[in-house]
Design brief:
The complex is a heterodimer of chains A (110) and B (121). Chain A has no helices and nine strands. Chain A is mainly beta and 110 residues long. In chain A, strand 3 and strand 4 form a beta hairpin. Chain B is mainly β and 121 residues long. In chain B, the strands form two sheets. In chain B, strands 2, 4, 5, 6, 9, 10 and 11 form a seven-stranded mixed β-sheet that branches. Chain B has no helices and eleven strands. The mean pLDDT of chain B is 97. Classes of the chains: A mainly beta (110), B mainly beta (121). Chains A and B meet through strand 3, strand 7 and strand 8 of A and strand 5 and strand 10 of B.
Chain lengths: 110, 121
């Protein structure tokens, strides 16, 4: 069982906007920033969003992140077929003194 | 260009040991904390261990503490994970990852391609 809670699946049609939630606690997201990783099929994860809402160089501005209290959210606008992937949230946990991940959300582009 | 290349994966019997290596290039290795993250077949990501740039501080997940040891050789630009007392549930692809900045709690960026460890008799 993952420390951070994500919906196991999400879906949308091309061009739509989808949002993926990530629920944590006071010791992880509540105290530290949230990060999001994208894992395309058969590949290693890639940093997608860091510090709640920052995009690394090369990540399209269709991807955005936000945080409120002990929860974070990833939004993808203008959905494209190549966005079909698994998405994971993560945060440092001050109680565990280590990183915690969400269980992952499989995004399907219909 | 930053590159991370894992090696050392393979099949090992329950109770056995294995050492994974991660060769780094394209950046000043000793400036960055490094981590191991694993992914069991068909499952999500699980953080394993993190080591500071100097190697003086290490952090381990409860599930591996006392069995796995993270270390680094900054003269060889190489990160290691020594796995011992292996169990079937340790079967996973093990990724090495650099922190995005010099801060230990910075996110993982980039990641290596992964090394598969299979624990089975």
């Amino acid at each position: 069982q993952s420390v951070l809670t994500q919906p196991p699946s999400a879906s949308g049609t091309p061009g739509q906007r989808v949002a993926i939630s990530c629920s944590g606690s006071s010791s992880d997201i509540g105290s530290n920033t949230a990060n999001w990783y994208q894992q395309l099929p058969g590949t290693a994860p890639k940093l997608l969003i860091y510090s709640n809402n920052q995009r690394p160089s090369g990540v399209p501005d269709r991807f955005s992140g936000s945080k409120s209290g002990t929860s974070a959210s990833l939004a993808i606008s203008g959905l494209q077929s190549e966005d079909e992937a698994d998405y994971y949230c993560a945060a440092w946990d001050d109680s565990l003194n280590g990183w915690v991940f969400g269980g992952g959300t499989k995004l399907t582009v219909l | 260009d930053v590159q991370l290349l894992e090696s050392g994966g393979g099949l090992v019997q329950p109770g056995g040991s294995l050492r994974l290596s991660c060769a780094a290039s394209g950046f000043t290795f000793s400036d960055y904390a490094m981590s191991w993250v694993r992914q069991a077949p068909g499952q999500g990501l699980q953080w394993v261990s993190t080591i500071s740039g100097s190697g003086s501080s290490t952090y381990d997940a409860d599930s591996v503490r006392g069995r796995f040891t993270i270390s680094r050789d900054n003269s060889k630009n190489t990160l290691y994970l020594h796995l011992s007392s292996l169990r079937a549930e340790d079967t996973a692809v093990y990724y090495c990852a650099r922190t995005q900045t010099m801060i230990v709690v910075a996110p993982f960026d980039p990641w290596g391609q992964g090394a598969l460890v299979t624990v089975s008799s």
